[in-house]
Amino acid sequence: MNKRNFTRVGYSEGASIRYDDHIIFGNIDNLSLSGMYIKTESEIPLNGSVQITVYHTLNASFKFSAKVVRQGDLGYGFQVSQIDVKAFDSLRSIVERKCSDQTVVMGETYRMLSCITHEERPV
Hints:
Elements (H helix, E strand, L loop, with lengths): L8 E2 L3 E6 L2 E11 L2 E5 L9 E9 L2 E12 L3 E10 H14 L3 H10 L4 E2 L6
Parallel strand pairs: 7-8
Antiparallel strand pairs: 1-3, 2-3, 2-5, 3-4, 4-7, 5-6, 6-7
């Protein structure tokens, strides 16, 4: 049974994860408007707060704050805790391009409003 509350799509791009004084790199396996799974061989503390940077083109990236919610065999699952409007728009564009049901994406957008900030803040 699938317990996911948000549409998850395959996505294969690089990302960095910053926590405490560490920065590690990994490859995104899949993502949704509420989080993502990043493959990495590095160890990351569960339930901790991190800052993730997604490198979605050669010249563009976006950042957001997240919580480490799951450790898998190949990496970690992250849940978005705070994201600015510009970064959320980038994330939403990725999901929208890969999802066949735009009505679902719009409904999920409204459910994410509590995490979206209206100004760009350093993360």
